[in-house]
Amino acid sequence: MESLIIPVLILALVGAGVLLAAKAIGRRRDKALPGSTPQPGRDPVELARAAAGKLDQEQHRRLYALIAQGQAMAAIKLYFESTGEGLRASRDAVGALAAHPQPFRPAASEPAPSEDDDDTPQRFPYRYRAIASKGDVTREVSSNMLNDEIYGRIRTLAKSGDTEAAASALTRHSDISMKQALEFIALLDD
Fold it and tell me: How far is CA 135 from CA 2, 15, 129, 188, 190, in A?
């Protein structure tokens, strides 16, 4: 056993040295030369805006669903296939979109979704988590069709005693059954 300690330590030190050298080379390569113009798209916020503009609504929704699930490789692949950009550009774009989330903005040729109807669920580029608990019982609803405003309306309905309407609204804005929604709403009426 003691004979393996020294080779393992040497291997660890060599690995650490290689990592440090790779980082230094990467930083040196990323620095712009003095007097040169900065590369376009290096600002991550601008890169995220430009990247979001290249996606249609369904691609945008699927990309953010993959980011929310922690599936970075699948998100990069989706962006790569959707836009036809290179692999490195797709990686940078997905990284910027993850760090600086962008709402979907329809192109001028696409009709904007109607926001007049509150009953029609809208999909958001993020997952909203609602948690209710009473005693030892805890329930969680996670959906990309919920936000603070909608959840606030559901809580108001529950607190006013209209549990059926609150549960119905919750099922409309999530993927849970009416029974699960009623269990969740029961935990809200304190």
Answer: 53, 50, 20, 12, 12
